[in-house]
């Protein structure tokens, strides 16, 4: 049924903002002569309560079914007036606004010209209003579960928050244990509390939480669907150890023929492990994993007479027959917390990281000073006979950060402080050590940071402003070539150890998640948030949130804060149980669609798919819009040659008459 | 019937009353319209079965059956199903609004020839629109005809056109009225099933009877089949065709079925005429 | 001619950047010529190139399509598609003899109220120089 | 009525005299030949065998306003049809075609627009001295020197154009041209006769139409329609360019507050032609449309007006992009009968 | 040399296959130099097939032009393949249709015919006017040999070849299930001289060139119907709501139509030249198409119809696409 459009036009004075330049009475009179216009009024402030009341009363009494408000920018008050319509029982999308303030009275001086233009804008709004169609904001149910990708501190925190609120969480971690980078740290700045001490309890909580299903040593393979209804497919990699049987006793690792012969990733390849291993003592889940790339039996099909681990394991947990397992489930929201990689200093060859064993990264030093690290916490370089304790120690900051030459213009935000922390720890551990830091700036912006920096300097650590240009070996010593820019003197500093404060970079495999979730990257290649200020944990895909260093470098407090933000955003959806989807979305006329797929290619949200349908018995494929994914940009509508895709409220047949008015009316 | 004047030029008429017959996507709205020009009102003469080209300036024209009998008064009625550009715009019209009307076009039901016979109409959906004038005409001249039976069905009760009128037909008790819907609905007192089966149920005798059918092509095909089963002769069966047309008087070319122009030779045809024209029921 | 020719320019602005930029120009009370009238769409990617042809046909002397700067599209990619389409459309229009100044495209962000003012000025000026559009304007005289 | 001639060197003057009325003649428009208003008589092209677009475009323009109105107003203003003076250089087949079409446009109701143009116009025909390969007018009762539908027939002789008035209008024209014309001699007439005869000889394509109109519909389900239509593009060139095709569409067009209802050529070869608003199409594929085209010309039209709606001008054959050849179809029809 | 007998043999085999509906090739026309598309449904019908310099039709258009009748309930739609003879340029149409999913790869059986250029009928008919008898032609060495009724005539191919062939860079089919004939060497090259000539004029000159052309268009839409890439179910040019182009035939509407059509083919037109060939009033449509093809090549290094795996030009972008004109 379609009723005759009866349009009410409301011209706002906006005090004198409009009325001063635009002859509001003349516009009113003009509008009253336009086709289908039933009521025209002008009023001082249309957006005020009495103004809105005018509209409501007319809708109710005069039977208006379309409303044109000629006032300020729709970006300002479209929602206000939509609510007015709704309050009067009219579909809110029967509203069209003519912007006669920002686009007219405020930018033109000549009253006649401005009035003429206002008339034109009102006319264009009237012809569009005439063709408006009611739209309905649909609601979809939200699956009361969440997926968290990445089990670093960000993922752990988000998972715990959501689980504590009573919703199911699937936590997917690609390595055998949760914990992320934080588990590799020794102490944390600025408070110097022990990283493991504060992290381990949370890891255990994750493992034991009834609402959390931990899928460690797993990868997300596929996510389809839309906010509230994501279908997830996860590949649980074979550990070759039956986790139900494994008690975590570690006999297998002791017995392994390769015990102590494989570099430990967790220890930054400085320590050694077996082919069957627990990445670190506090790992969660505390279950062993066989490294399929190293294990003799798995790579060669043979390990001595029989695999020693299997022989040793009392509970018979070793199972070489184990296969990858695909787990599928549905969730309503997704949190991406995949963290970061550290900058690979080999990309700055002048620092000799690849050449000299005594050049370390910050993270390597973290392991070195850690009591659970390869040296048991002793700062010792070299092995066996060559082992020695470095005395002259230099830190170089901003390696791989704020550096256009390696493509990282950003500041990594943690290096200043972890340098201070490590410098402090080294000095504490090596009596008489002579520690200096080469820096460009010190950015001690966080709570307690400046105080900590002060403290470290007071402890005798020297800060030398300069950006070292080269490191080379002279005898046993490493020589740092640098200019002290404060003293303006070139230096050649001879040291025993150089620590590179490497910056943070996106995960090397970050693309994987981009492809799965259609995320975007910002210029720094970290995942792009929906808005840098107002939606810092949201993404362009509804229902998908970011937490931690996956979104950009940050320290643990910020990581945790953001994780809590992401969790709370997810919880808003989960706990309301329903989500509204856009109304001004696109739709396809399946009778005329030819299935060429241009719209499918173009849609930035992957909201359109080609589906097979039957046209009078003939199989054809046509495009179909997934209403929950469409954000209403309309790019698809402009791409469709035959106009078979249209965007609601911005249909070709609604825009063409607007063009006609603006073109024809001089 | 050579006329002077411009046959393309329509008369202006005003909608006096308008109401929805059915709801939904392809809803039907009936308009009662009166010519603005007194002279046109006086001179306009249509016969049951004829149609008129109605339109809206700036939108276009559509051929629509005149769904009232001249016996009803000096006005016209159109029942329009919302299909596309023009009919959609027509549906926006309300009392007081203007439309353009030209016509009347086509032949008509040979009501004079039929005098003394029993008339039975078999309609489906919007197909009842061209049948209504013959019903009204026969009602108005009830004494001239031996009987009037009406068989009408639609998908659901909500799709029945002219619903309110059927009760008055029954009350007057000179019309035998059989209604049906395709699928059962609560509270539906009449037949459930397709029109062709209802026809068999009613089982009219072909004796001195004229059967007129109008509706969707598929229905017509089965009704014809069943009428033959009931031993109706080809000459006793009438139908109307609705091919696309633009001018209404045999110039624009498109409405032909075989060598017949629907606008001039039709829209009313006896089955005897149509049965040998292969295109007629395409 | 006594009165100077005043061109009629139709502009398609994306909601998020250019329309917001134009709003800012308003809020900042910058002044610019009144010849340009705006049709708001959600994204410059929504602008069908045929809108431009149609606008010229229906009486516009100039047309502007404006969106977010590349990389800033609210919908991530819309303006990239728009850029391709309109680069080609512009070539086509000029090839059949539409003056170069008639069809314009601009990137105006939400913060570039001042740029918007400049764009309006420039587009209006170019249309003015090109004169009334006649080539394939719908011709009432032939009716 | 006296037969005259205009010597070649005076022909330009002759055109100038004709040009005192609104004169239409074959000219190159864009890249093709059609009848157009003569503003520069040097552009008139009479040498080419026939125009691509037939002169029906003068009497029945491709787009024609039926009436205008203002939006929101119900006042209807029919346009003035405008002046049509002389249509010069109409070939015999086209002149005859117009007579055939007259039948339709005056069937019961006169088409006022068409009629006014027909009444106003003086048709100056031009005999075909060199018919094209696909001309077959002889088979349809036409002739390269047929005078049907003309007010005056011209024949191009070696050094002059012979003017043979046929109606009062033609006679008037001859008189108006008296200053540049001179009486034709017997030799001139003989020469013309000779040329006409030669032309007849040159027409090699033929079809015997006997039996077709009555029996064509009987071939309804014949495979020939499918075979013929398989390659058809449904482009409608065959109908747009056909001098006897006359179908049109009526549309409303609006600009701003001005509107008009107008008609424009349409073609039975288009799928939209018969498409119902419901999406149902009684002629769903090109097979049915092709069948209708031939049936309409060679049977239905005969049924109504007793004449085949084809004059054998050969345009549909010349211009069909996929070589669908009406003579070939008719030959198959004959075979199938 | 073209071995037509072998072609017929291939065709017979092909149409005998269970999974092939029919084969589309060319046959001699009804008069003169004309040829026509030939639908081969039975092995016998293959006898009329030809492949010669007269075979200019791009048969790929029939893949999308087919009008499907409703399939009666309970019946299965015919899913057999259509076999198609393609020249080099035609094969690009098939590729582009595949890209745009106008057809499925398993719905066609493509028989490639490496091509040494086809004639422009208008050029040939101007050279040998009034030809009533059927004429066949063959390729010579850099020539075309016409078998006229009074003996063979050999014409340098430059004189009679279609414009598309003079600039053709893909004479060998880019996609086929089977190839007929030997690969031929590329002889054409394309410097877009025709386009550049026109570009060199002032806007006024360019418009007066086009105005006359557009004004003479009859809007029969043959150029659209014949185009293998114009396969829309409901073309914008036919739509009434919204109505992009009024149905009135005049310069303004005609121009809008030509711009719309040309734009819709930007990055899709494979330059088979069919649109221009079929135009009854000889509008130089290729001059429009080739302008866009030139821009697409220069600006985006893109050519349509080469790689079935590629993305359509108008459905892709590069962040660093040129944008020199944007304010
Ligand atoms: C040398 C160094 C010292 C630092 N010291 C301090 C300090 O003292 N104080 C402080 O506040 N901050 C410090 N930081 C910063 C701190 O490490 C980070 O803020 C914190 O680790 C960020 O946690 P996250 O969860 O975001 O990322 P991560 O810790 O990187 O965790 C991400 C997790 O996701 C997993 N993952 C990645 N990709 C996938 C995938 N595709 N599927 C499944 N799982 C995946 C990873 O395996 C990892 O477990 C330091 C950083 C460095 C480099
Ligand atoms: C004798 C007769 C009696 C009828 N009686 C009734 C009746 O009583 N009640 C009823 O509801 N219906 C009736 N109809 C059917 C009615 O005429 C159509 O439903 C109506 O015309 C649909 O018009 P539309 O504009 O709404 O549909 P659309 O499909 O939007 O448009 C149809 C119109 O658009 C134009 N059009 C659309 N596409 C094209 C194109 N590609 N090329 C050219 N033109 C095009 C034509 O002008 C056509 O008139 C009758 C028809 C006939 C012939
Ligand atoms: S409107 Fe935008 S988001 Fe929606 S389907 Fe189209 S391209 Fe995708
Ligand atoms: S059908 Fe063909 S030959 Fe006959 S008149 Fe028409 S165009 Fe000429
Ligand atoms: S000209 Fe040829 S291809 Fe075009 S519609 Fe006519 S028969 Fe078909
Ligand atoms: S084929 Fe020629 S006349 Fe027909 S629409 Fe195309 S350009 Fe116009
Ligand atoms: S536009 Fe012309 S040249 Fe291009 S693909 Fe279509 S028919 Fe061929
Ligand atoms: S012109 Fe455009 S809309 Fe029409 S068929 Fe071609 S591509 Fe489709």
Total count of strands of chain A: 34
Uncertain regions spanning at least 5 consecutive residues of chain A:
none
Number of helices of chain C: 4
According to CATH, the fold-level topology of chain C is: Rossmann fold
Instruction: Specify the helix fraction band of chain C.
Output: 25-40%
In spatial order, strands of the major sheet of chain C run 2-1-3-4
Strand and helix order of chain C: EHEHEHEH
What share of residues of chain A is helical?
A: 25-40%
Secondary-structure-based class of chain A equals: alpha/beta
> Count the helices of chain A. How many?
18
Report how far the terminal alpha carbons of chain A are from each other.
Answer: 36 Å
- Principal-axis shape of chain A: elongated
Largest sheet of chain C: 4 strands, parallel
Question: Can you put this structure into words, describing what you see?
Answer:
Chain B has 2 domains: 11-105, Translation factors (Elongation Factor Tu (Ef-tu), domain 3, Beta Barrel); 118-240, Rossmann fold (3-Layer(aba) Sandwich). Helix content of chain B is 23%, strand content 30%. Chain B has 8 helices and 15 strands. In chain B, the strands form 3 sheets. Chain B has a 7-stranded mixed beta sheet with strand order 10-9-8-7-11-12-15, sandwiched between helices. Chain B has a 6-stranded antiparallel beta sheet with strand order 4-3-6-1-2-5. In chain B, strands 13-14 form a two-stranded antiparallel ribbon. In chain B, helix 6 (217-229) links the parallel strand 11 and strand 12. In chain B, helix 5 (195-202) runs parallel beside helix 6. Chain B is globular, with a radius of gyration of 18 Å. Chain C is built from 4 helices and 4 strands. Chain C has one domain (9-130): Rossmann fold. The mean pLDDT of chain C is 90. The relative contact order of chain C is 0.25. In chain C, helix 1 packs across helix 4. Chain C is of the alpha/beta class and 143 residues long. By secondary structure, chain D is of the alpha/beta class. Chain D folds into 2 domains: 4-202, no CATH class; 212-336, no CATH class. Helix content of chain D is 33%, strand content 19%. Chain D is built from 12 helices and 11 strands. Chain D has an 8-stranded mixed beta sheet, sandwiched between helices. Chain D is globular, with a radius of gyration of 21 Å. Chain D starts with a strand and ends with a helix. Chain E is globular, with a radius of gyration of 21 Å. Chain E has helices at residues 4-16, 61-65, 88-99, 121-127, 157-160, 163-166, 193-199, 203-215, 222-226, 251-264, 274-278, 285-300; strands at residues 20-28, 35-40, 49-50, 81-86, 108-112, 136-139, 143-148, 151-156, 178-179. Chain E folds into 2 domains: 4-179, no CATH class; 193-315, no CATH class. Chain E contains 12 helices and 9 strands. In chain E, a hairpin with a 3-residue loop joins strand 6 (136-139) and strand 7. The longest helix of chain E has 16 residues, at 285-300. Chain A binds chain D through residues 35, 591, 660-661, 664-665, and chain D through 71-72, 255-256, 279. One flavin-adenine dinucleotide sits between chains B (51, 60, 62-65, 79-81, 83-88, 126, 129, 242-243, 245, 267) and D (249, 251, 272, 277).
């Amino acid at each position: 049924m379609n009723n005759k459009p009866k349009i009410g036009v409301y011209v706002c004075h906006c005090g004198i903002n409009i009325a001063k330049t635009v002859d509001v009475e003349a516009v009113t009179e003009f509008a009253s002569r336009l086709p289908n216009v039933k009521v025209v009024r002008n009023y001082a402030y249309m957006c005020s309560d009495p103004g809105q009341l005018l509209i409501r009363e007319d809708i109710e009494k005069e039977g208006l079914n379309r409303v044109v408000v000629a006032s300020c920018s729709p970006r300002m008050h479209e929602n206000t007036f939509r609510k007015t319509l709704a309050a009067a029982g009219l579909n809110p999308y029967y509203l069209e606004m003519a912007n006669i303030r920002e686009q007219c009275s405020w930018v033109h001086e000549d009253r006649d010209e401005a009035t003429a233009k206002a008339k034109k804008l009102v006319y264009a709004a009237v012809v569009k209003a005439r063709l408006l169609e009611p739209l309905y904001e649909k609601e979809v149910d939200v699956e009361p579960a969440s997926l968290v990708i990445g089990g670093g501190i960000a993922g752990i925190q988000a998972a715990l928050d959501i689980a504590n609120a009573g919703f199911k969480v699937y936590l997917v971690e690609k390595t055998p244990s949760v914990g992320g980078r934080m588990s590799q740290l020794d102490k944390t700045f600025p408070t110097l509390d022990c990283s493991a001490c504060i992290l381990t309890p949370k890891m255990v909580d994750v493992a034991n939480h009834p609402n959390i299903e931990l899928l460690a040593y797993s990868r997300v393979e596929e996510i389809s669907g839309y906010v509230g209804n994501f279908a997830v497919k996860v590949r649980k990699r074979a550990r070759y150890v039956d986790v139900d049987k494994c008690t975590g006793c570690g006999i297998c690792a002791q017995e392994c023929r390769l015990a102590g012969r494989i570099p430990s990733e967790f220890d930054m390849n400085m320590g050694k492990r077996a082919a069957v291993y627990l990445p670190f003592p506090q790992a969660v889940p505390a279950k062993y994993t066989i490294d399929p790339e190293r294990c003799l039996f798995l790579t060669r099909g043979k390990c001595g007479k029989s695999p020693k681990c299997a022989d040793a394991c009392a509970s018979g947990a070793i199972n070489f027959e184990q296969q990858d397992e695909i787990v599928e489930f549905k969730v309503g929201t997704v949190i991406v917390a995949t963290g970061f990689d550290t900058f690979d200093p080999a990309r700055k060859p002048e620092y000799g990281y690849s050449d000299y064993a005594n050049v370390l990264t910050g993270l390597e030093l973290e392991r070195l000073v850690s009591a659970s690290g390869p040296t048991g916490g002793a700062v010792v370089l070299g092995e066996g006979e060559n082992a020695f304790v470095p005395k002259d120690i230099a830190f170089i900051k901003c390696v791989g950060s704020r550096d256009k030459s390696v493509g990282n213009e950003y500041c990594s935000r943690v290096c200043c402080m972890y340098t201070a922390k490590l410098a402090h720890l080294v000095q504490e551990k090596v009596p008489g050590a002579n520690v200096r830091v080469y820096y460009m700036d010190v950015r001690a912006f966080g709570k307690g940071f400046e105080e900590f920096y002060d403290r470290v300097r007071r402890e005798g650590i020297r800060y030398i402003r300069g950006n070292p240009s080269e490191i080379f070996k002279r005898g046993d010593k490493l020589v740092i070539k640098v200019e002290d820019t404060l003293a303006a003197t070139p230096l050649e500093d001879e040291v025993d150890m150089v620590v590179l404060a490497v910056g943070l970079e996106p995960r090397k495999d970050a693309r994987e998640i981009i492809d799965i979730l259609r995320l975007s990257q910002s210029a720094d290649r970290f995942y792009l948030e929906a808005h840098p200020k107002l939606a810092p944990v949201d993404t362009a895909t509804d229902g998908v949130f970011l937490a931690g260093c996956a979104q950009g470098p940050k320290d643990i407090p910020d990581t945790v804060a953001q994780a809590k933000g992401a969790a709370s955003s997810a919880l808003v959806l989960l706990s309301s149980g329903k989500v509204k989807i856009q109304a001004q979305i696109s739709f396809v006329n399946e009778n005329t669609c030819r299935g060429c797929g241009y719209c499918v290619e173009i849609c930035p949200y992957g909201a359109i798919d080609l589906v097979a349908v039957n046209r009078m018995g003939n199989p054809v494929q046509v495009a179909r819009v997934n209403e929950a994914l469409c954000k209403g940009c309309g790019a698809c509508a402009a791409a469709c040659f035959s106009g078979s895709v249209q965007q609601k409220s911005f249909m070709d047949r609604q825009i063409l008459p607007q063009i006609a008015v603006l073109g024809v009316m001089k | 019937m050579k006329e002077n004047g411009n046959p393309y030029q329509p008369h202006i008429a005003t909608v006096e009353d308008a109401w929805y017959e059915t709801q939904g996507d392809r809803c039907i709205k009936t308009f009662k319209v009166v010519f603005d020009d007194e002279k046109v009102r006086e001179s306009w003469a249509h016969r049951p079965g004829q149609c008129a080209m109605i339109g809206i300036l700036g939108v276009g024209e559509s051929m629509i059956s005149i769904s009232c009998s001249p016996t009803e008064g000096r006005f016209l009625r159109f029942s329009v199903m919302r299909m596309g550009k023009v009919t959609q715009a027509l549906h926006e019209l309300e009392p007081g609004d203007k439309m353009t009307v030209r016509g009347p076009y086509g032949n008509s039901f040979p009501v004079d020839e039929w005098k003394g016979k029993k008339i039975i109409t078999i309609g489906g959906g919007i197909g009842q629109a061209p049948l209504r004038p013959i019903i009204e005409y026969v009602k108005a001249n009830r004494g001239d005809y031996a009987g009037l039976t009406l068989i009408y069905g639609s998908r659901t009760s909500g799709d029945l056109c002219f619903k309110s009128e059927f009760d008055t037909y029954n009350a007057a008790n000179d019309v035998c009225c059989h209604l049906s819907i395709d699928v059962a609905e609560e509270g539906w007192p009449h037949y459930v099933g397709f029109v062709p089966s209802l026809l068999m149920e009613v089982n009219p005798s072909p004796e001195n009877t004229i059967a007129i059918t109008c509706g969707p092509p598929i229905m017509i095909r089965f009704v014809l089949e069943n009428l033959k089963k009931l031993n109706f002769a080809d000459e006793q069966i009438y139908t109307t065709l609705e091919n696309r047309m633009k001018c209404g008087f045999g110039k624009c070319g498109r409405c032909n079925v075989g060598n017949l122009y629907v606008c001039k030779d039709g829209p009313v045809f006896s089955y005897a005429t149509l049965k040998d024209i292969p295109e007629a029921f395409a | 001619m006594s009165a100077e020719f005043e061109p009629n320019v139709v502009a398609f602005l994306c909601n998020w950047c250019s329309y917001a930029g134009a709003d800012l120009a308003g809020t900042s009370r910058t002044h610019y010529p009144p010849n340009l009238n705006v049709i708001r769409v959600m994204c410059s990617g929504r602008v069908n190139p045929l809108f431009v042809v149609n606008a010229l046909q229906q009486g516009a002397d100039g047309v502007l399509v404006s969106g977010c700067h590349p990389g800033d599209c609210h919908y991530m990619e819309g303006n990239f598609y728009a850029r391709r389409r309109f680069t080609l459309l512009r070539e086509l229009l000029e090839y059949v003899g539409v003056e170069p100044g008639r069809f314009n495209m601009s990137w105006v962000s939400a913060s570039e109220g001042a740029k918007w003012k400049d764009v309006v000025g420039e587009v209006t000026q170019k249309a003015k120089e090109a004169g009334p559009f006649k080539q394939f304007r719908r011709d009432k005289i032939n009716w | 009525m006296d037969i005259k001639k205009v010597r070649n060197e005076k022909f330009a003057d002759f055109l100038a005299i004709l040009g005192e009325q609104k004169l239409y003649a074959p000219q190159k428009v864009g890249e093709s030949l059609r009848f157009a208003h003569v503003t520069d008589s040097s552009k008139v092209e009479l040498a080419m065998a026939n125009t691509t677009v037939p002169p029906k475009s003068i009497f029945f323009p491709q787009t024609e306003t039926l009436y205008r109105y203002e939006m929101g107003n119900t006042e209807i203003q029919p346009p003035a049809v405008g002046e049509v003076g002389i249509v010069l250089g109409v070939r015999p087949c086209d002149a005859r075609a117009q007579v055939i079409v007259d039948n339709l446009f005056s069937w019961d109701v006169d088409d006022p627009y068409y009629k006014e143009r027909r009444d106003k116009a003086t048709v100056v025909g031009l005999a075909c001295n060199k018919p094209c390969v696909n001309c077959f007018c002889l088979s349809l009762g036409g002739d390269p020197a047929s005078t049907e539908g003309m007010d005056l027939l011209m024949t191009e002789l070696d050094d002059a154009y012979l003017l043979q008035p046929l109606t009062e209008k033609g006679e008037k024209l001859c008189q108006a041209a008296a200053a540049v014309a001179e009486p034709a001699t017997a030799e001139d007439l003989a020469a013309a006769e000779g040329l006409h005869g030669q032309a007849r000889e040159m027409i090699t394509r033929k079809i015997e139409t006997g039996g077709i109109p009555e029996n064509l519909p009987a071939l309804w389900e014949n495979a020939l329609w499918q075979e013929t239509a398989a390659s058809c593009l449904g482009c409608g060139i065959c109908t747009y360019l056909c001098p006897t095709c006359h179908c049109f569409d009526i549309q409303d067009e609006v600009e701003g507050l001005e509107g008009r209802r107008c008609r424009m050529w349409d073609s039975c070869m288009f799928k939209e032609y018969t498409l119902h608003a419901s999406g149902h199409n009684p002629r769903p594929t090109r097979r049915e449309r092709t069948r209708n085209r031939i049936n309409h010309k060679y049977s239905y039209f005969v049924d109504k007006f007793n004449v085949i709606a084809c004059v054998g001008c050969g345009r549909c054959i010349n211009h069909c992009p996929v070589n669908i050849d009406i003579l070939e179809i008719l030959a198959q029809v004959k075979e199938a009968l | 040399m073209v071995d037509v007998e072998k072609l017929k043999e291939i065709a017979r085999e092909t149409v005998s296959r269970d999974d092939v509906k029919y084969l589309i090739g060319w046959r001699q026309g009804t008069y003169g130099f004309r040829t026509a598309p030939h639908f081969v449904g039975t092995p016998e019908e293959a006898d009329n097939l030809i492949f010669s310099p007269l075979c200019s039709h791009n048969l790929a258009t029939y893949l999308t032009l087919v009008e499907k009748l409703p399939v009666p309930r309970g019946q299965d739609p015919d899913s057999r393949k259509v076999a198609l003879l393609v020249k080099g340029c035609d094969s690009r149409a098939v590729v582009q249709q595949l890209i745009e999913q106008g057809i499925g790869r398993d719905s066609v059986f493509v028989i490639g015919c490496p091509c040494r250029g086809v004639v422009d009928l208008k050029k040939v008919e101007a050279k040998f006017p009034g030809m009533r008898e059927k004429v066949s032609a063959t390729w010579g060495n850099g020539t075309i040999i016409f078998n006229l009724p009074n003996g063979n005539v050999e014409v340098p191919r430059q004189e009679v070849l279609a414009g598309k062939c003079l600039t053709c860079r893909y004479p060998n089919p880019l996609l086929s299930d089977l190839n007929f004939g030997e690969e031929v060497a590329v002889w054409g090259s394309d410097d877009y001289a025709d386009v550049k000539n026109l570009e060199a004029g002032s806007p006024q000159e360019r418009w007066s060139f086009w105005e006359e052309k557009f004004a003479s268009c009859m809007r029969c839409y043959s150029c659209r119907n014949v185009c293998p890439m114009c396969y829309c179910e409901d073309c914008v040019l036919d739509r009434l709501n919204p109505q992009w182009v009024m149905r009135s035939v005049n310069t303004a509407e005609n121009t809008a139509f030509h711009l719309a059509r040309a734009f819709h083919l930007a990055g899709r037109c494979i330059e088979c030249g069919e649109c221009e060939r079929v135009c009854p009033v000889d509008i130089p449509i290729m001059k429009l198409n080739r302008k866009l093809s030139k821009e697409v090549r220069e600006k985006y290094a893109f050519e349509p119809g080469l790689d079935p795996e590629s993305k359509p030009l108008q459905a892709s972008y590069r962040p660093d696409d040129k944008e020199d004109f944007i304010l």
